[in-house]
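User: Please write out a complete single-protein record containing the residue sequence and its fold in C-alpha cell form, without commentary.

AI:
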Amino acid sequence: MVVDRSWEIAFDALAALPVRAARMVLAAQGLDRNAVIVLDADSDAFVTVPGLPPHLSQETVSLSSDGTRLVYVARQDDGAAPMRVVLHTLATGARQEFASDDFLRAALSPDGALLAVLADLSSGPGIPGLGDEIAGIELIETATGTRRRLWAAEGYWEEASLSWSPDGRLLAATYLTLDDVLTTVVLDLSGKEIGSYAERVALPGPHSVWASGHELIVYPEPDDESPLIAIDVPTGGERRFARRNFEAYLAISGGRVVRPGSSPGRFVTTDLNDGDERPFLTVSPAIAIDALDLAP
C-alpha cells in the first residue's frame, strides 16, 4: 500500500515517460510549471506524464481503479469550449474523449465500463437567482459513448466531489443546495437516493471517499474543527474521529490521511484520529498539490 512508506520526489529532475500503470497521481504546481506526476506501479519511480493537453484542469485529475488510465477534464486544445472528459491511457498516450458544455469533473467506475460525470445543468447566465440552478450527474458508457442523466437537484457544484463505491453499485457526490447547505448524496445506478447527508462533505479524490462498500469518510461543514466522520450508509449512523491539526485533507487510503506537513514540500500521513504521524512525501523544490489520487 502506497501510504505505508515514505517517498522523495526531485521535481526538476523527473523524466517524462509512459508507464503501464500507476499507483499514485499528483497534479502539481511548481514555481515555473505545472505537471502531472505518477508513481510507476512496476518500478516505484516517479515520472511525469507526457502528451497531456494544454488546457487540462489540474484539480480534476484522477486514476482508474486499475491504475492504467488517467481521468481528467480539459478544454479543447485551442482553449475553447466545450469541456472534454478524457480517458488517457498511460502506456500509449491514447485518449478517449467525451465532450459537453456541462461537464465539470468525472470518475471512472471500478470496472471501467461507466464514467460518472458532474454536470452543470443550469439555465441562465450562471448568476444565483437568474435562471434555474441545477446540479446533475450523467453516466457515459465508455464503449459506446451512450449518455444518460442519472440524477439532478437544485443547487451548485460548489464542492466538486464524485466517487464510486468499491463494488461499483453506488455513487457519492457532494453539492451545494439552493439554501447554501453542502450536502453529500449516495445514489444507486437507477438514480435513487440511498442517503442524503447535510453538512457532510466528501474529499474530491474519487478513491478517498469510501472506506468500504457501505461506509463513507466525510468531514462536517461548517465546523471549525472539521474532524473526519464515517457514515454507515445502510443505517445513517456516524462515527466521529478526533482532529489535532488543521491542515487540509488531501487524500485517504487504507485508513490513513494524507495532509501537508510542517514545512513546504513535506507531506505526511496520520491515522483517522490525526495520530501516528509519519512522513509520506518530500518534494524538492516545494510544490503545491492541486489533486492527489491513490489507486486502491
Notes: The mean pLDDT is 93. The CA atoms of residues 12 and 285 lie 8 Å apart. The chain has no helices and 24 strands. The two ends are 8 Å apart (CA to CA).
